[in-house]
Design a protein that fits this description.
It is built from eleven helices and twelve strands. With 322 residues, the protein is an alpha/beta fold. The model has no long low-confidence stretch (mean pLDDT 94).
Length: 322
């Protein structure tokens, strides 16, 4: 059997290490559970040790099964070799619902703890709303302080090793930090060569919060995605000169910014390629060219806006960083 590739770790402010590349598990349409479990097992064989799931993705159970099989088959020696992230969905982003939601995720995963638990959005939806089928009236005021206190409680109970957030801007992070006993370990945000997140990265660096990138390839090929990364002429030119794939250039660039990356390909060859970014680096000239790429947020989150709701504009949702 081929030797699995070793992915470097980053040390989080919680004192726990996290592999800098994780496999994302959000996909639509959702393949059958057994198919997903087989994909995740392939990923473990290739060298992935970090998996990123969420309550809303519908992939917690197949991932949990893959973890159990991997241990059973000796692909990993123990649960501790894997880093599992899950996320609190918006319908449960209420102080009283956080712990029950985490317990449901743990049941789905068949695990006693997750390594990282994130508040998926700074958004609260009316409980009972199914998936993304919500209206403006279903978006309720979000209690940052109370919800974070409940996340801290999950940490104290030992059900999660590190806690963090996703899609939080600087104002919301400031409010959270001003009212927290445990700072967030991670802020997972949309980040790629076409949305570099300079402001949030600088802020998080000052505060000791690690930035993790979702949609590193701008969700290329997905209905809501963009071709801004995979069809970018600058990246294409660098990739051809380097004899690398465009994805490898894009992922390496994120890694060189000090962020971790959630890649998402279920294709075995591309899964391997996404891990082959550690034995070379971009030149200063190449980085400078990448830093000239025009910027545009891909996923605006307009669905969370409403005239009478907590977020009336994209400026409010993203703390002015649009």
């Amino acid at each position: 059997m081929q030797e699995a590739k070793k992915v470097p770790d980053v040390m989080l402010n919680s004192g726990h290490k996290m592999p800098v590349i994780g496999l994302g598990t959000a996909t639509a349409p959702l393949p059958p559970p057994d198919e997903l479990t087989a994909v995740f097992l392939d990923a473990i064989r290739i060298g992935y040790r970090h998996f990123d799931t969420a309550a809303i993705y519908g992939t917690e159970q197949p991932l949990g099964k893959a973890v159990a099989v991997a241990i059973e088959q000796g692909l990993v020696k123990s649960r501790d070799e894997l880093f599992i992230t899950s996320k609190l969905w918006n319908t449960d982003a209420h102080p009283d619902l956080v712990l029950p939601a985490l317990k449901t995720s743990l049941r789905n995963l068949g695990l006693e703890y997750v390594d990282l638990y994130l508040i998926h959005w700074p958004v609260r939806l009316r409980p009972g709303v199914e998936g993304f089928n919500f209206t403006a009236e279903d978006v309720l005021p979000f209690d940052i302080e109370g919800t974070w206190k409940a996340m801290e409680e999950c940490h104290k109970l030992g059900l999660v090793k590190s806690i963090g957030v996703s899609n939080f801007g600087t104002k919301k992070l400031t409010q959270l930090l001003d009212n927290s006993a445990i700072p967030p370990a991670v802020n997972q945000v949309e980040m790629n060569t076409s949305w570099r997140q300079g402001k949030i990265r600088q802020f998080c660096k000052q505060k000791g919060i690690h930035v993790s990138a979702w949609s590193p390839l701008a969700a290329y090929g997905l209905r809501w995605g963009s071709n801004a990364v995979m069809e970018n002429p600058v990246l294409k030119e660098i990739a051809e000169a380097r004899n690398k794939s465009i994805a490898q250039i894009a992922v390496r660039w994120i890694y060189e910014q000090g962020a971790s990356v959630i890649v998402k390909s279920f294709n075995k060859e591309r899964m391997k390629q996404n891990l082959e970014i550690f034995d070379w680096e971009l030149s200063k000239e190449e980085s400078d060219k990448i830093n000239q790429i025009p910027q545009r947020r891909m996923y605006a989150g307009e669905m969370f806006l409403s005239e009478n709701g907590p977020y009336k504009s994209l400026e409010e949702l993203w703390d002015g960083d649009i």
